[in-house]
Amino acid sequence: MIGTTSADITASAKARIGPPAQALAVAPMVVFCGHSLIQNCNNNHTPQFNVPTTMDFDPMGAPGAFGMLNLDGENGTIGSSTEADWISKGFNKYLGLGDYKSDPGAKFESQNVEDALDARIGTVLLFPVFKTLTGTGQNAEYDIIGWIGFHLTSYDVHGHSATLHGYFTQYIAQGILAQSSPGSGGVPSSLFGVKAIQLIE
Question: Distance of CA 148 to CAs 37, 86, 125, Å?
């Protein structure tokens, strides 16, 4: 109405919150569901959050697998600049659960990767949680069953390998929720501490 200087406006919205079946801005480094502070490979345990810990990214039981993922699904080895971009910004597409190829070899000695890790100190990275690792080289695959937040405090590089220092933390991620209940039908368990908020109305 002409001449009206103020008005009361009301609105309402409904939202769901839960573990995302797909997540945005994922970093390419994996975490094992059996880590001593997680112990949640079967959706029956709550990780210990805010407890200082370390994660070693070195040979993980399959030749050429150092705990790094090929997030774009292409064949071959990922360049260090691409890997660094995924670390510093997270992958720019939604990623779902399931099998992901290993990025064969390791690039922790790369200046690009070290610069990316330097930029993430004091922030939370969103890591994929894996249950099994099969195959070798670029045919090795990690079975991703969920996501977990890791607050990076420092890191050490040992040639091709690296050790990350920090702690697991609960985290609100950009994600797409599943339609089923947590922990069933391939839906990630909420016990990894990562949740997403999705408007439904």
Answer: 12, 16, 8
Tokens of 12: 């309402």
What are the strands of the beta sheet with 194-199, ordered from one edge?
15-18, 194-199, 171-172
Answer for the pair 60, 133: CB distance below 8 angstroms, yes or no: yes
Is pLDDT of 199 > 50? yes
Amino acid at 158: H
Contact 149, 191 (CB under 8 A): no
* Reduced 3-state DSSP string for the chain: CCCCCCCCCCCCCCEEEECEEEECCCCCECEECCCCCCCCCCCCCCCCCCCCEEEEECCCCCCCCCCEECCCCCCCCCCHHHHHHHHHHCCCCCEECEEEEECCCCCCCCHHHHHHHHHHCCCEEEEEEEEEEECCHHHCEEEEEEEEEEEEEEEEEECCEEEEEEEEECEECCEEECCCCCCCCCCCCHHHCEEEEEECC
Percent of the chain with pLDDT over 70: 82
* Contact yes or no for 23/171 (Cβ under 8 A): no
